[in-house]
Amino acid sequence: MNLSKRIEALIYLAEILQLKEEELIATQQISKNKNSWFTLENSNRSLENIITNFLQKEKLDAWANHYEIPETSIKKAIGIIMSGNFPLAGFQDLLNVFVSGHHAKIKLSSDDKFLIPYCVKVMKSEFPEVENYFSFVERITDFDAIIANGNRDSIKVFKSYFSKFPNIVRTNKFGIGVLNGKESKEELAKFSEDIFYYFGLSCRNISKIYIPKNYDFVPLLEATHEFNNIILTNKYKNNFDHNYTLQIINKMDYKANGCIIIIEDKALQSRIAMLHYEVYRDENHLAELLKNKTSEIQHIVSNADHNTFTNFKNKDFGKANIFELDDYENQIDVMKFLKKLNYSI
Asked: 9 and 156 share a domain?
């Protein structure tokens, strides 16, 4: 398949996904049964982002043209070790490898074993040549390069094991928010989406906020309480109850509203159902707090135009989990990496 045909296959995928046919709905239900974090609402949210921001012809053409992807290319075997922290988390890597013209050898996450194969199956149904671009494997062997995602322990293993190959091994990064206490009710409602979507399990979710001295938590607690239905999901409720109990037993200072627990903590990563905060005195102090954290922060969500944030990717409220083709996880340009393989191997 040349580049034009590959893009045509992706556009066809978008058309079928939009139809919400019975097989897709059944696949979503199977995924939910296997992994209760994958609610229909969350899988639909991920599908909508893929359809709208990844699979539109004008966006795909512009993106491919930016990298000057040739119509035909030297096909390499690219191993992809996918994460399963939210539905279809590995789709962006799959798309990059496919558009670049390489072959994807995919090791699926045990938490997300159905939605990705469904997407490939849809493309194959109309474009049989797609078969030559994907294989699903339990163990990745005979590869030319690797893209790996994992937890803190597996990342260490990946970096050692794949060090002799061209690789992208992503370490954990986190979304943070910077508030000034002047946010409107509407802005805080959008910001709550950045906290709660995907139950906070995406690396793009907000896990920590920076707030000014004497910050009034009441508006934020009221806004986040609008998501109190999240507590109806057993896994989330169990995490909330466990963490809430720990705060009480340990006599920790906290703010809570029945669906989120907010505590002061310097760590960027927070537990499920929790949100960390840290206080800044002024912009200079904020800059100092963020100094040397580029390698840990996925992006900053804020309504402010701070010069402080020039070293970070910035997003508006409500946009943390909405991302385009060139909004790469960990800001690692996957397509640039893949294109180089034609000349470096």
From this structure: yes
Q: Nearest CA to 159 among 204, 100, 151?
A: 151
Q: Express each pLDDT in 140-180 by its tens digit.
A: 999 999 999 877 778 778 888 888 999 999 988 999 999 99
Question: Integer distance in angstroms from the first to the last C-alpha of the chain?
Answer: 21
Residue 171 C-beta-side C-alpha neighbours within 13 Å: 7
Closest CA to 196 of 144, 281, 259, 286: 259
Q: What is the DSSP string of 206-247?
A: EEEEEEETT---HHHHHHHHTTGGGGGSHHHHHHHHHHHHHH
Tokens standing for 218? Answer: 């009441």
CB-based contact 280:289 (threshold 8 Å): yes
Please identify, among 171, 192, 226, the residue that sits at the C-terminal boundary of a domain: 171
Parallel, antiparallel or unpaired: strands 255-256 and 261-264:
antiparallel
Whether 51 and 57 have beta carbons less than 8 Å apart is answered as no
Model confidence pTM above 0.85: yes
Residue 277 gets which letter from DSSP?
E
Domain containing residue 184: 174-315
Beta strand pairing call for 134-136 and 103-107: parallel
Assess contact for 266 and 278: CB atoms under 8 A.
yes
Taking each helix axis from N to C terminus, what angle separates 334-344 and 91-100, rounded to the nearest 10 degrees? 40
Same domain, 32 and 150: yes
pLDDT per position as a tens digit, 41-60 = 999 999 999 999 999 999 99
Query: 147: burial class by Cβ within 10 Å (0-12, 13-18, 19+)?
Result: buried
| Sign of the C-alpha dihedral computed for residues 141, 143, 149 and 154 taken in this order | positive
Q: How far apart are CA 159 and CA 148, in angstroms?
A: 9
